[in-house]
Each structure stands twice: as structure tokens, then as C-alpha cells.
Amino acid sequence: MTLPDPDDYVPSPCVRICRLDARRRYCVGCLRTVEEIAAWGGMGSDQRRAVLADLVERKR
């Protein structure tokens, strides 16, 4: 098993406001979907960066 590169660490966007917006199906705090939140721990850095890029669009 290879350890993740600490220089390539992508932190979670979680802001500890965990409440699901039923209409949009996103967390009102971090704007991730339930599926993205559940998968975050197993995602690679590139996948995490892709989710973060999607969050920028969701904020608009």
C-alpha cells in the first residue's frame, strides 16, 4: 500500500454546517452531494479537486 503524498493533500470543504437542502440535494454548508461526502475519504487528490471545481459552480 502506498501512502498519499502529503504535498498533494486536498482538504475537505466541510465547514461543519451539515444540513441537506432537500430541493437541491446538497449540503448547505459545503455544497457537496451526499454521495460526494460519503466517497470523499476514498477519493484520490484528482477526484477531490474535481469535486472542489464543481462546488465553485454550485455557489453561483
Structure, explained:
The protein has one domain. It has a two-stranded antiparallel sheet. The chain has 2 helices and 2 strands; from the N terminus they run ββαα. With 60 residues, it is mostly helical. The radius of gyration is 12 Å and the shape is elongated. The termini are far apart. The longest helix is centred in the C-terminal third of the chain and has 15 residues, at 45-59. The protein has helices at residues 34-39, 45-59; strands at 20-21, 26-27.
Task: Give the gist of this structure.
This protein has 60 residues and is mainly alpha-helical. It has helices spanning 34-39, 45-59, and strands spanning 20-21, 26-27. A two-stranded antiparallel ribbon has the order 1-2.
Q: Name the average pLDDT.
A: 91
Q: Structural class, from helix and strand content?
A: mainly alpha
Strands side by side in the biggest sheet: 1-2
Shape: elongated
Main β-sheet: number of strands, strand sense, barrel status? 2 strands, antiparallel
Uncertain segments of ≥5 residues (pLDDT<50)?
Answer: none
Task: Tell how many strands the DSSP assignment holds.
Answer: 2
Number of domains: 1
Keyphrases for this structure?
mainly alpha, 7% strand, 35% helix, two-stranded antiparallel ribbon, 60 residues
Blueprint of the fold:
Layout: E1 20-21, E2 26-27, H1 34-39, H2 45-59
Antiparallel strand pairs: 1-2
